[in-house]
Amino acid sequence: MRLSVAHQSRPKLGEVRNGDMALVRTEGSHTLLVVVDALGHGTAAAEVAAEARRCLERMPLDGGVEPLMDAVHAALRNGRGAAIMMGLFDGKTLQCGGVGNVELRARGTRVPVVPTPGILGQSMRSLRTVSAVLAPGDRLVLFSDGLSFRLDLETARKLPPNEACMLLMERYARPSDDATVMVADVEN
């Protein structure tokens, strides 16, 4: 199985730089899905998100979510920090975990992820991770708190990932915050 993924991100109304970031990276049979929400807005937050991206682009993907999260936590230490949601798909199983107020919701297979309280780069409890075997037709939606947590996956159920991202952003993004949404569909 493989993932068909799209994402959309935009800065807070009135800002030029975005403190949110989405990353999709494939290495061998692994696909990494990440949404980062750096604390605050503007240039300083954008630099934190860029540092998280640089860290995740150089890490091997075959070790699981925990070493990836530990590496980002170390890379962001002594800065303003970030919330993050991360999923690692190996073609069959999704392993995921998050820190702070970034969400992952699934349609189809249940993925009972509960983000770990804290701020990546500052303080957090032991990372909670979950794994779920995915099936064709499942949909994953990762999003920052720049979108309302009242987000309804059914509104975009029949749309392809890119159109679903646009609709979810249009309907649920808050103008007072940076906003990022990622939609990933599991396909044969």
From TrEMBL:
Signal peptide: none
Domain PPM-type phosphatase: 16-186
PANTHER family for this protein: PHOSPHOSERINE PHOSPHATASE RSBX
UniProt protein name: SpoIIE family protein phosphatase
Protein source organism: Pyxidicoccus parkwayensis
